[in-house]
Amino acid sequence: MNYGTQKNMALTGEPPVQLNKTQKLGTLTGLTGLFILLLATFNVQFPERTFWLSGSLVLLSAGILIFSIAAYKDKTAGIKNDGVWFKSLTSRGYLAWCLGIFLTLFYIVLYFYPSLLGLRENGVNTGLIGFFDPLSKFLSGNPASQWFVYGVLYTLAILTFGIKFILKYRHNRYEMIRTISVMFFQTCFAFIIPELMARLNSPDFSLPYYDLKNIWPLNYYNFDQYRIDSFISSGDIGLALLIFGIISILIITPVLTYFYGKRWYCSWVCGCGGLAETIGDPFRQLSDKSMFAWKVERWVIHSVLVFVVLTTTATIYSYLSYDAQKYWLNKDVFLIGTGVTLTLLFLLIWIYKREELRKDARYGALAYLSIMIGLILIHYLSGMNVFIFDAGTLRTWYGFMIGSIFSGVIGTGFYPIFGSRVWCRFGCPMAAILGLQQRLFSRFRITTNGGQCISCGNCSVYCEMGIDVRSYAQKGENILRASCVGCGICSAVCPRGVLKLENTKKSDQRIDPDAVLTGNNPDLLDLLKKNQ
To answer: Partners of 503 in the beta sheet?
Structure first.
């Protein structure tokens, strides 16, 4: 009798692949909702679009929730590795590549071929976009666009998979609170409020579409000519939005980063981070932890930051040149002021914070030199051309290469291959700025108790930013990395309570690292008294 051949040489064997009945029901429910959207994409005409659209979204959401509840309801709260390295979807297997290709193709169609989804510039929308017209007209009074469809699906994904995330990490209060925060900001600030603002528009009054939680350089287009004209023409409300955007850059961002680190934005507010933390959670272990990846990360993300600073400066400079008599801020004052401000900032950092940057100081010096050379070229080329190219063309290229290809197609489409924070780690200029601020003057750090570390490696495996957390924990060193987004998963999956997210002074450490390395046991009673 042939009992079959055991081909798996792993001592642990393979985890069970069977879904229980409730999970199968959830899968069927979700696929039914997805099938309705697929029919709409192929321009199947539904008699009552409002009913069918509502039904498809409800079924899709219900399917995810039913599956999630069934997956975690009978499990005790705590760490759940669940054999992620044995599953095809979460270990770069066949299903992972299929999902990656599907997501990539979806983003390519969304960004560059929206007509395939039914968008009609002149006429009535059809297909999937036309299917969403009733909801769009209800919220903003306007027909749907590909960005409205994307916004609905994006928000729905964060809400439903956010609940799944909460169920999975329900043993950790911090994870639950920050996930609820991301769900709130995405739903209200990024989706509902901008759509409702559109209802205020009239032939004599028009507010630009404004995601209130997006801060420069994420909204790299915010200082384009058409945007500034739109803000100014909108009266006090538009001017207030423009001023709010500037204050967010100069005051709100550094103050909040000082107290809470970059996590206040990257893990509590940002929609990109929200999607990575919720729908991307099963893929966080795929992030590359190698030294080579870290070197590439630092070069690429700081290059993107230099690129966006130069393109934004050139765009504003050319706008002031375009209408020089209209504003007290002329182009020369702006360019000289920008150069002087950056020079003073660079000198202060170099003098007082060079130790914090250490080897990264050379990256800062090269970035500063590149920006200064760019500003000089902008001046001598009258602001209309930068590196031979027109300033508007350069900004368009940035929007295409960074705003579309990197953040959308690669950043999200490659979740199942490269992990959930590819964009945040390698390309996001906002993460680069916040990371520099976090490294230089923030009170946030992850403190470690090396004496309790058992070197299980959970923290390093599940760090989506590619940080070798275990190496810090073993030495009892505080973790203060520019790339750390403060998601807290390393602490959540630690079985010994070694890691703790704190807002402390640099000198404060839970355990003396020298005592850990020499094998001396710290006096925990003295430590408790000191921290009271």
So the answer is: 444
